Structures are given as C-alpha cells and as structure tokens.
Amino acid sequence: MAEQKRMTDENLYIETISPTTQPAARRRGGYLYVAVFTSGMTTLAVELTASRLLGSVFGTSNLVWANVIGLMLLYLTVGYFIGGRWADRSPYRTTFYRILVWAAFLSALIPLAARPVLSAAANAVYDVDAGLAIGSFASVLVLFAIPVTLLGTVSPFAIRLAVTDIAAAGKTAGRIYAISTLGSLIGTFLPVVLIIPVLGTFGTFLLFASILYVVGLGGLWSQHGVGALRWLWMPAVIAVLSALTLSGPLRAAAPNASILYESESAYNYIQVQEDADGYRYLYLNEGQGVHSQWHPEIYIYGRTWSFFLIAPYFNAPPFTPEDIDAVAVIGLAGGTIARQYTHIYGDVPIDGVEIDGRIVAAGAEFFDMNADALPNLTVHVEDGRYILNQLNGDYSVIAVDAYRPPYIPWHMTTVEFFREARAQLAEDGVVAINVGRTDTDRRLVDALTATLLQVFPTVHALDVPFSFNTILVATRQPTLSSDLQTNLDALPAAAPQPLRDILALGTSALVPTHPSELVFTDDRAPVETLVDSLVLNFLFSGGIDQLRPVE
C-alpha cells in the first residue's frame, strides 16, 4: 500500500493515509477550495460594494475609487503577510474556519457601523461642513481594515493546509490562487449586475457576508460537530443591529420637505422629495444638486433646465418655434427638460437618454415622465454616447445635461464625441451642454469651449443666474451672439410668454467665451484632474461660505 503523509488539523503528527481514509481527505481538500472560492468572491464583492457605500454620499469620482482600491490593496497586503505567519504558527483547519466566520461577521458589521457615519456625512455635505465630511470618509474606509485584512489571510493559510507534498507545492499554490481569482471574478460582476440593483448596498454586504459565514460554519461543523453552534451568536447580533440601524432614510429630507421615494441602483442612490408648495425634486448620491424638478401646474422654473430652451435661438434670424423639428436629451433624469420642451413646442419628437433605469422609473412615477403626459418622448436606457450613434439624427437641439462635477463622464467631453453629435444635427442644429464652474474658476468651461470649437464654428456661453452653471451652445452654422436678441424681437405674437421670458433672461446672461489651450480628446481628457483642482481651489479660497444657505 502506497503511503502518503499529511498533517491533521489539531495534531502535529504524521499520519499514513490508507485507501479508506483517502476519500475523507479529498472531501476536506474539496471543501477547502470552496472556502477559498467564497473568500475571493466576498473580497471583491466587498470592494465593489464599498464604492457604492461611499458613492451614496461622496460620489464616484476617480478620487473616491483611488482611495477605495488603494486601501483595499493595502489591507490585503497586510493580510497576505499575516496569513502566512499565522498559518505556520497554527496550521489547523479550525483556525482557518474561525478566520472565515470572523471575516464574515465583521464584513456584515461594515454597513451597520457605517450607516450613522454616512448619515452624518450626508448632512455635512449638504451643510458644506468639509471637515466632518472628510472625517466621515476616512472613518468609513477604516471600517474595512480588519475584515479585508482577514480575507487577505485566507489564500496563504489555505496553501499551508493544502500542501502535503513539497514536490507539488507549486501546483497546489497555483490551484489555490486560481480558485480564489475565479471567485473574485464572480464577486466583481455579480454585485454590480444583479445584487446591488435588487438588494441595495446594505443588503449586498449582508448577503455575501452570510455566504462566507455559512461556509465557515460548515467547516467548523466538520471539525467540531454541534460544538460549532456556539458561533450562532454572530448572525443573531447582526439581525438585531440591522433592525436598529437600517430603518429610515440614509439622508434626511430638506427643511419643510418630505421623502416620497428612496432607492438604490447600480449607478446611484436616488431620492425624491416634495416640499410644502408641491414642488418635487430629484436628488442623486450626495444630494448636493437637484437633477430634476416638477410641479403639477408650473413648467418653467428659470433654472438651468430652462436655459436649454434658449439654445436654438442662436441661429441666424428669423428663427421661430415652428423651426424646432426634433430634440435629443442626454442626461434625461426625471424629464424636466423634456417636459419644458413639450410645454413650449407641443408634440415635438424627443429622444431622451438616461443610463439609469431606476431613475427612469422614478421619473415616470413622480415627475410625469410617462406616455400619458409625454407621448412625444422616447426613452432610451443606455449610455449617452453609445445610443447617440444609434439614433436617426436630424435634431434641432442635442441637450447634454450629464455633466455634474465631479461625476463628469469624460467620454462625452471630447472632440470625437462632439463630431458624433454634429453628425446627428439638422443643418441649423445646435448642441447645448451644462458645465460647472465657480465665480473665479472657469477652466472647465474654457476647455470645453475650446473642444467644441474644434468641431463647430461658433460657441456661445450663458451663465445661469444664482448658480455655478454655464450653458455652452455650439451652432452648426456660423452665428452671432446678437442673433439671440434679434430672434427674441422677431418672435411671432402667438409665441408662449414663458419662452419670451426665458429668452429675455438669456440675453442678460450672455458672457464672452475664452477658449483655453486645453482640448479634450478620446486619447487625453484629464477632466477629473481639472475638476479636482477646481473644487480644491474653490474650497481653499473660501468658497464654502458661498454655498451655505442664507439665514
């Protein structure tokens, strides 16, 4: 009989494996691989879900991603180092499975401990308390330190347990890392594609922690039988804490407002509020900006959305409402722009593009963005640049309202994107984009002006009053800023009064353009670097005081 040596979990002696004991050894080895797969899956699921946890308050800029990924790698590095030493000192399966249940328990604690911290951070962002917001961000990231470090110990520990023959150590280590990486692959796609949209961020944490816990508990059961049941205190604690902390909204309603809807998608934390005057507002993620507004009897609000109505009147006069043939809106949100265009121009065909289907559903339910109220609107739940190239074109206006610093989709800021947009315009078509700025820093506006001028002959700028927004209008034909006033004066008597009012406001909001030397291309578009600099300059120059509500 061929003899094979192995080390048992609880005794450091050499045992001869007989043919009758080999199946049990193989089962234990197989379960070890299940544990490694589950650990790899949970590690990446925690990392991906961490970005959504933080994104609900701090957004999803590259800066947030860099902090999440960088610290996760640091925690895993520490875990790999500790795991190897730990396995040499205590090479027992019981120790290994205890690591799994503790990692699961602490992973489930992350969203529960983070909830009050994030709630405070959301209020800090709303009140522009930078110190508290940054402190909250750091505090949440620290919560991941112990559970992710424990998850990092799993692979080296599993290799120590699995190696029974030094000659096959390389093959065993390769198998362990391959299985762990396969689990990580599943943990990368499953939360984003399926779990987060269905269960939300907190539910996703709890689900993957539960799977890891069950695997760890099963391993302890194989070692100790009913003695493993003493670890059932962990899910009991999580259940009690979940009931106490996960009730109520993450972000409180604004003063004199109530929350009508709150949900989470693969892209956004979504909230709909209604104030005492019957206005409804769509808030996303940190809630600093209003993405859509609605009132049952009022259509024009004099805010950023209304300025998109001005865009086609930069064409050479006479340009009248009857000259509007079709409109595309990229960044549809709750449909405010589409609703205003419909109110002014009747049943003009509108293609609305919104990447987040959950926002579209909220728009249909709370903002009248449905077939009954807007039969002329066709909604496309897709990425804006991709779907723009699939549409039929010949638009009078392409409105791009997808730029919300610091979440600017860089691929819709480039020369190549604007060439694609130009190809979809009618001969007198225009592109209008909403760009962020500060009172003293217009670098993003100037860079986008320069980029547009690579494609269009003329670009006009309107600073939206009482905001940090500039609307840039690029015309396919050469035009003059004075064309706006001329077209206002030439409006037919039947033109709606709200259109006259917003055009008059637009003429007073005109500002000169100053294109910079920076031009965004698909090869090089340092949008977030520019925005990060813009935001930091704003904060360090006392800009916080400009954002605080007037008492």
Structure overview:
The protein is an alpha/beta fold and 551 residues long. 52% of the residues lie in helices and 14% in strands. It has helices at residues 22-58, 62-89, 93-126, 130-143, 145-152, 154-162, 169-224, 233-245, 304-307, 336-345, 357-366, 384-388, 415-422, 443-452, 482-489, 497-509, 527-540, 544-547, and strands at residues 5-7, 14-16, 257-264, 269-275, 280-284, 290-294, 327-330, 350-353, 377-380, 395-400, 425-436, 458-463, 469-475, 510-511. The strands form three sheets. Strands 9-8-7-10-11-13-12-14 form an eight-stranded mixed beta sheet. Strands 3-4-5-6 form a four-stranded antiparallel beta sheet, with helices on both faces. A two-stranded antiparallel ribbon has the order 1-2. It is elongated and about 90 Å long.
For the record, what CATH class of the largest domain applies?
Alpha Beta
Compute the number of strand runs: 14
CATH architecture type of the largest domain: 3-Layer(aba) Sandwich
Bin the helical content.
40-55%
Terminal residue distance: 88 Å
CATH superfamily of the largest domain: Vaccinia Virus protein VP39
Key features?
551 residues; alpha/beta; Growth Hormone, Chain: A; Rossmann fold; 8-stranded mixed sheet; 4-stranded antiparallel sheet; 14 strands; 52% helix; elongated; disordered N terminus
In short:
This protein is of the alpha/beta class and 551 residues long. Helices cover 52% and strands 14% of the residues.
Please describe the topology of this protein:
Elements: E1 5-7, E2 14-16, H1 22-58, H2 62-89, H3 93-126, H4 130-143, H5 145-152, H6 154-162, H7 169-224, H8 233-245, E3 257-264, E4 269-275, E5 280-284, E6 290-294, H9 304-307, E7 327-330, H10 336-345, E8 350-353, H11 357-366, E9 377-380, H12 384-388, E10 395-400, H13 415-422, E11 425-436, H14 443-452, E12 458-463, E13 469-475, H15 482-489, H16 497-509, E14 510-511, H17 527-540, H18 544-547
Parallel strand pairs: 7-8, 7-10, 8-9, 10-11
Antiparallel strand pairs: 1-2, 3-4, 4-5, 5-6, 11-13, 12-13, 12-14
